[in-house]
Amino acid sequence: MTGARNRIGEQVLLRPVPPEAYLSYTAEMVRTLDEYHQVSAIRAAVFLSEQDCPYEEEFDGNDLCATHFLLKAKGRPVGTLRIRWFADFAKLERIVLLPCQRGRPGLRVLLATAFELVARKGYERMIGQIQARLWPVWSRTFRCRLIDGRAPFWFSDYEYREIEIFIPRHPKALQMLEDPYLIIRPEGAWDEPGVLEASAQRSNSGEQAA
Question: Which GO MF terms does the UniProt record name (predicted)?
Fold first, then answer.
């Protein structure tokens, strides 16, 4: 997804991503331990240091069952978010930028890239738990609404509200009966042949291997 427009993901945003932003920023799914260390460093710098969040509340036991995205500005890690997956919705969490990147278009690159993946996986709605003080910011950033009838709640010393985020239907949303090789490709790289497809060429017989 590097350098390419996230055409479905951008439809969630209230302002388009400037084309030149894709030249300055990359946002990609975290696939390696080193990339996850970069995610942790950014979150520690902001949530633990700036917001004085306790370590065990920030690193809450959900990181290894979530999908993380890492934003880089000219190769430097500057932002991240994570997504967790449920039956008919996804949950947007831990959106964070280093101070030097706030108010710049990198956030829109990060969000559009994440929303693109959510749509491709077939989800059409997300939930977010946002600090109540930031509702004016998020309501101007992407298509969302406060969920009716849901009271504010508190954790880690901040008041939170629940929002619903609307995701357009992706024309290539994945289905259960896709080509089996497509389904076993690396997450998010479904349009590129994977290593397991190449491995199929090793067999020159019709025998099934356990």
Answer: acyltransferase activity, transferring groups other than amino-acyl groups
Predicted confidence band of residue 210 (pLDDT cuts 50, 70, 90): low
Q: Is 205 exposed, middle or buried (0-12, 13-18, 19+ CB in 10 A)?
A: exposed
What per-residue confidence (pLDDT) applies to 1? Answer: 42
pLDDT digits (tens, 9 = 90+) for 136-154: 999 999 999 999 999 999 9
DSSP assignments along the chain, one per residue: -TTS--TTGGGGBSSPPPTTHHHHEEEEE--SHHHHHHHHHHHIIIIIIIS---HHHHS-S-GGGSEEEEEEETTEEEEEEEEEE-SS-EEEEEEEE-GGGTTSTHHHHHHHHHHHHHHHTT--EEEEEEEGGGHHHHHTTBSEEEPTT---EEETTEEEEEEEEE-PPPTT---TTS-HHHHTSPTT-TTS--HHHHHGGG--SSPPP-
Our count of domains for the chain comes to 1
Residue 110 counted as domain residue = yes
- Full-model pTM: 0.91
Q: Which of 133, 81, 71, 138 is nearest to 105 (CA)?
A: 71
24-72 residue pLDDT tens: 999 999 999 999 999 999 999 999 999 999 999 999 999 999 999 999 9
